[in-house]
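Z., the sequence and structure:
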Amino acid sequence: VYDIVEKLRNKKPTVKIDSEHEFTINTSKNTAIFIKSVVDDDKEEEFKKIDMIMESALGKKAFDYIESLDLEMSAYNTIINVIMAAISDKDLEEMEKIEGSTPRKHK
């Protein structure tokens, strides 16, 4: 008997934006497929991609709240890295190392 009950637990990771706002990260297969398609879409503008990734992974309420904060671009990069780390089941530091070693495309 292969008991995989614990491995299949559906506990979603969360991201804490501030002391009063913590949001669940949707790490489902469908969300991961959608995010991959967004990342791979060379026709879509980079800032639009960020918005699409955040809204699909965190939901409209979280997206609207984050947008209301008027954050620096580096904060958005951190949020995207958190989402990608959660989907990849990696910790944030590991994801930031991967992100830092990946050459960026500039249009």
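The two ends are 53 Å apart (CA to CA). Confidence is low (pLDDT under 50) at residues 103-107.

Let me know what you think.
H.
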